[in-house]
């Protein structure tokens, strides 16, 4: 199938930018117009943060293979490789026989296979002491259950030394500059208010900006991440929610002390802790999260049952800069720090944020036509694990548009694959439970002049 001549991409996160580069490179005659609310790196986009993990340990071997391919591309990229820190990533759990153990065992198998001929790249942890000493060094004596006032949670695991983290903000800036260098890629920084349709049909003819401008195109690619549900009806296949992230300032001495630590993640408690980077330690939790419910006009233009639909829509640092993570989030982050990095347990956070994401029921991405719309392709549903695929995801979107995508991926990333599913596939494990309504639990930022 031919690619259309004029294409609008809504969103300059990893899905949008990577797709613009793949289209520009493969189809020089195609005109690509990327539209975002802000110039990249977009301050509240899911793709922009101090760090993102680049790992290939997946329960699903399909993602593991794609992630290993992506990692190789990042390491061989003269620009991106400068932002990649190969510090290793530890996957830990509490040692109980449950779904986390299953994810741990299957992830370790894919890691061992991908590190073939390099068994030294996998370090096994058989005890809480092994886990904690990987952070602090062999002389460190971990806290006992008596000192913690509970059983230990970080008990068993392994570290994959081939993984690492990337500076996601600097990388997105570099990707934007790369996309801008193509003469057939144009950027506009303005919010899209709606997709515009030929009168009386579900056939898109372009997009309308909030300033009223109509931008015509043959195809609209919706890559608007957690905001996508306002532009197209995604109920049942994608939902937006946020998870908590916090940063501690660390001293030079602490930075030195923890410089050899790996990203340390606990499947059972949902925690991800990063080694010190630019004077900070970042911690996040893959919690059940927070939602922000809004009633909006149904974005489908014709034949709708409800004129109004209810969605969760991002409430971020750009509109609510004083937001501070909820108390339950703070307590959970601190309780984990008490065990793994006690000096940070009671230290005030330097800053916090709720990071918005779009989640599919299976945690498989959504790269498909919208079933009720024409000329609209969806490239979203990152489900908290898509960043690492930035060097290849755009090519997959273009392969889908041109009918060349591997049928296994067509099926995995299809709309239909997500219908009626309640259980995710463990690609990006999240804590169980319902997302809480953010307006009920969000707090206001305290004074930021904390002393260490
Ligand atoms: C806390 C957290 C940790 C994560 N950790 C990892 C990790 O370690 N490794 C990993 O691989 N992945 C990770 N992820 C997932 C990864 O970051 C996301 O899957 C990915 O960045 C999503 O990219 P995107 O392009 O879909 O969305 P975004 O980056 O959010 O891009 C969407 C863009 O669309 C724009 N937009 C929205 N609406 C409109 C509109 N109406 N008009 C114009 N523009 C619009 C927005 O401004 C935004 O720039 C994590 C996610 C979170 C939340």
From TrEMBL:
<dbReference type="GO" id="GO:0050660">
    <property type="term" value="F:flavin adenine dinucleotide binding"/>
</dbReference>
<feature type="domain" description="FAD dependent oxidoreductase">
    <location>
        <begin position="7"/>
        <end position="399"/>
    </location>
</feature>
<keyword id="KW-0274">FAD</keyword>
<dbReference type="GO" id="GO:0008115">
    <property type="term" value="F:sarcosine oxidase activity"/>
</dbReference>
<dbReference type="Pfam" id="PF01266">
    <property type="entry name" value="DAO"/>
</dbReference>
<dbReference type="InterPro" id="IPR045170">
    <property type="entry name" value="MTOX"/>
</dbReference>
<keyword id="KW-0285">Flavoprotein</keyword>
<keyword id="KW-0560">Oxidoreductase</keyword>
<dbReference type="GO" id="GO:0050031">
    <property type="term" value="F:L-pipecolate oxidase activity"/>
</dbReference>
<dbReference type="InterPro" id="IPR006076">
    <property type="entry name" value="FAD-dep_OxRdtase"/>
</dbReference>
<protein>
    <recommendedName>
        <fullName>FAD dependent oxidoreductase domain-containing protein</fullName>
    </recommendedName>
</protein>
<comment type="similarity">
    <text>Belongs to the MSOX/MTOX family.</text>
</comment>
<dbReference type="GO" id="GO:0004657">
    <property type="term" value="F:proline dehydrogenase activity"/>
</dbReference>
<dbReference type="InterPro" id="IPR036188">
    <property type="entry name" value="FAD/NAD-bd_sf"/>
</dbReference>
